[in-house]
Amino acid sequence: MDTGRLDRFRYSITKDLPRADVLALYRAAGWFGPSDPAPELDAMVANSFAVSAAFDPAGRLVGMARALSDGVSDAYILDVVVDPAHRSQGVGRTIVSRLAEYLASFGIDWIVCIGVPGTEAFYRAAGAAPMDCHTAFRFGTKNGAEN
Fold this sequence. Notes:
Number of strands: 6
CATH architecture: 3-Layer(aba) Sandwich
CATH topology: Aminopeptidase
Distance between the termini: 39 Å
Shape: globular
Number of helices: 4
CATH class: Alpha Beta
Strand order of the largest sheet: 1-2-3-4-5-6
Mean pLDDT: 88
Strand content: 15-25%
Radius of gyration: 15 Å
Helix content: 25-40%
């Protein structure tokens, strides 16, 4: 586990996260409704290659990002979420930067993510660059997307 401090937050690469705190972050982002997604949530965290997390001084999870990877050459950063009360304080940028550094420590050199429009400055500040010569694609029809 990699642990460090920036300002008043503690940062860590860990999958040992309180389910209630993870659920609160996802709900704050509008990603889960009122039903209990505990089995899915547990699997999402457990099956991630790595999770970068931020904790407030009381030890409460206030931000996280997950990475899926083969552990050798490719990784995908997803689910970057920060508690609304702690946004615009560098928490998200630090979470993503630390996760990218952790992945690179394994020799992974293809680290990508897909951001929604308007997040370009955030990801640039975290050390990412747009992939002008690539196009993101989505398979399946979940949430109305079509092949």
